[in-house]
Amino acid sequence: MIDTQIILGFQSDNDIFYKSFYREHREDFVRYLIKVGLNKEQAIEVFHESILVLRKKAKSKTLENVSVSFKTYFYAIGKYKAYDLFKAQRKEILIIQEDIKDVAYPLIEDEDQTELIQAIKVKFKELGNSCRKLLTSFYLEGLSIKEITQREHYENENTVRAQKSRCLKQLKTLVLNGKER
Amino acid sequence: MEKKDKEKLIEKFFDGTISSEEEQELKKLIKEDASVKEAIQFQAALKKTMHEEDDMAWRKKFTEYEKEFSTVKRKEFPLIKYAAIVGFLVGLLISILWVIYRDNSTMKLYQAFYTPAENISYPLTRGDQDELVNLAFSTYEEGDYEGAIPYLKQLQAETGSIDLSLYIGSAHLALNQTSEAIYNLNPQAEVSYDFKYRFQWYLALAYLQADNASEARKVLENIVENGDYKVSAAESLLAKLP
């Protein structure tokens, strides 16, 4: 089981937490990956990607269900990422052994969204502060509507839902208008 | 199904609280209702965009951390390759120099100023005290910090008291578990007034343990300016900071 403080740290954007974590684990983790067979540059890259996996897992609240120790879990992520890298190098089909699939994707068909993603990237910046904050809280930080209501002192959950719906509509309009030009 | 219900279903899908029955229902809706499919595709793209941007920003930060890490490593062992060539004696000399360098560092200041946070929450008395309180604070006051932390956390979970993070943070400090200490001493919620500057004092010490003199300075300056705890110690520590 993973300590709640560590989970909270990975859910946050706390630079000090991440920097301390980096300093504490960098040397041993990279040494371990070099033993697995990576070179130093690859090992550092896998170390970075493994931290990102922890961050995503913490935000999607799945880190709470891990039953092994933190170190065992973290090193297992690194090992699987290293195997993925070996496979990619041998030009085999990349099999993501570490289950980090986004909850959003199994339901929808595998359509190419590159263009839409690029447009969202540009147009998102044109939204007002409050919209950007609300959408980020829900889609990136993984907060529920209830948690956003409490944290941002909204009147009630329906107010948040209505505001979120307005923000999505505004973003969609910006994206569509951008396409038409 | 009403629009509001469809939106609720989509919301549950994205916040991860959707049940398997609801997921089946949503799958059916995606096939039957183009607006639902479009809404999910748009929101999935938005979520993916945010994660990609977030990953990119953090990768940049990690690259900076790596630079810092390598620089510190080089500073700590500037002559390591040389030492390998000229042998054990030079290596020994470097180690001695390094120890001297460390001796004048923020770690030395931390060691000079750190004393465990005093228990002002539950003065231990014989008799009628809660068993968990007694266990947590007697272990803490005996200096068995490794043993005390789980009890303190359990007590915090039961009472919901943010103030207890002070003792948890102080215990982590004593065990040189710096990142856990910093995390606990930076509470997300408001602490009691009596604890406010105690937290700040131990946070400053945690930054010293982390060799982060600039953050320690900021916190200490705040104690000197506004605080009511360890003000003169903070002044004295500020004067000694590198």
From TrEMBL, chain A:
SUPFAM superfamilies the record matches: Sigma2 domain of RNA polymerase sigma factors, Sigma3 and sigma4 domains of RNA polymerase sigma factors
InterPro entries, alphabetized: RNA_pol_sigma-70-like, RNA_pol_sigma-70_dom, RNA_pol_sigma_r2, RNA_pol_sigma_r3/r4-like, WH-like_DNA-bd_sf
UniProt keyword annotations, A-Z: Sigma factor, Transcription, Transcription regulation
UniProt KW Transcription regulation keyword: yes
Domain of life: Bacteria
Similarity comment: family membership: Belongs to the sigma-70 factor family. ECF subfamily.
Protein's recorded name: RNA polymerase sigma factor
Originating species: Belliella kenyensis
TrEMBL record, chain B:
Domain of life: Bacteria
Residues passing through the membrane, by range: 79-101
Keyword Ligase: no
A matching Pfam family: TPR_6
Parts forming coiled coils: none
Keywords (A to Z) from UniProt: Membrane, Transmembrane, Transmembrane helix
Keyword Ion transport listed: no
Protein name: Tetratricopeptide repeat protein
Source organism: Belliella kenyensis
